[in-house]
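Appendix B, example 12.
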Amino acid sequence: MKELAKHVFEASRIAATASTTKLEFLRKLGADLATDYTKENYEEITEKFDVVYDAVGDSERALKAVNEGGKFLTILPPGTPPAIPFALTSDGAVLEKLKPYLENGKVKPILDSKSPFPFSHTLEAFTHLNTNRAIGTSTKNPF
């Protein structure tokens, strides 16, 4: 998401949260401010943001990081109002828009080192996803 925000949507500054071991990964993806949520309450950072994207369902905390008049997106319903539900479907039009960024390397697909899982290991894949250790995916199963 950070690469998309910076290169596709031309965001001027990207902040992201992760555990200690994933901070450098966030920086490599383009995060200007990488915060360790295990050591810091990101919602208490004095800098506020025009757009906050909640990918883990922590709406109440994430909303505190939004500038007045800013936007708050969440992928996990219901979300704390005024959250905007955000669902992305991969169709040809979306992929066509991303194609130049993928081809020039500005946006790179991220796959967890344990993936891909064959279909016969679907249960194992969901188990890994629910450990909150998967990289490159939403770490909460909305189903």
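The first strand starts at residue 15 and ends at 18. The radius of gyration is 16 Å.
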